[in-house]
Specification:
With about 160 residues, the protein is mainly beta. It has a single domain, classed as LURP1-related (Porin). The protein has one helix and twelve strands; from the N terminus they run E-E-E-E-E-E-E-E-E-E-E-E-H. A twelve-stranded antiparallel β-barrel has the order 1-2-3-4-5-6-7-8-9-10-11-12. A hairpin with a 2-residue loop joins strand 8 and strand 9. The chain is globular and about 35 Å long. The N and C termini lie far apart (about 40 Å).
């Protein structure tokens, strides 16, 4: 199933809306801009938290911990060293790989070599916008949240490179 993520520009917080194929709002994402740990929350449209993420401080390559609403760690997203943007997602005993194109506009998430998510970033858009095609709906919320975290890590890297 396809999902669409759109960043809201001109906001005091990092905000995304997640929509389904029919354009229905499913989730909202809010990040705390001035937070030391870059806290990000995936919420239902009623504002209840589904997942949250915090940046691991003092890490050579960017890492985010994904937490349940009860603050239990369920996954870790880590940027891998390389020319292209690549990531690993540790999910219990599963290890997902995220491989990006050279410019970071296309990504694929695989589980044991099998493609489970295809991500396309819109090149011309007011704010970041993604089309996310999820083959396995089992971890839908987590996989959508991984896309947001990848966007956050890519944005942090871009800011570092312009300073």
């Amino acid at each position: 199933m396809k999902y669409y993520l759109k960043q809201k520009k001109f906001s005091f917080k990092d905000k995304f809306t997640v929509k389904d194929e029919k354009g229905n709002d499913l989730f909202q994402v809010q990040g705390k801009v001035f937070s030391m740990k870059n806290k990000i929350d995936l919420m239902n449209m009623d504002g209840s938290t589904v997942l949250s993420a915090e940046k691991k401080m003092w890490s050579f390559m960017a890492s985010y911990f994904i937490l349940s609403p009860h603050n239990e760690q369920i996954a870790v997203v880590k940027r891998k060293f390389g020319f292209k943007p690549n990531f690993s997602v540790s999910l219990g005993n599963e290890e997902l790989t995220v491989t990006g194109s050279i410019f970071g506009h296309q990504f694929v998430i695989k589980n044991e070599g099998e493609e489970i998510v295809r991500i396309s970033k819109k090149i011309i858009s007011w704010g970041d916008a993604y089309e996310v095609d999820i083959v396995d709906e089992h971890h839908k919320e987590l996989l959508l949240f991984v896309v947001i975290i990848i966007d956050q890590i890519m944005e942090e890297a871009a800011k570092r490179n312009t300073n």
